[in-house]
Amino acid sequence: MDLLEAIILGIIQGLTEFLPVSSSGHLEIAKAIFGDTSVPQESLTFTVVLHAATALSTLVVFKKEVSEIFSGLFQFKWNEQTQFSVKIILSMIPAVIIGL
Question: In the chain, how many domains are there?
Answer without folding.
Answer: 2
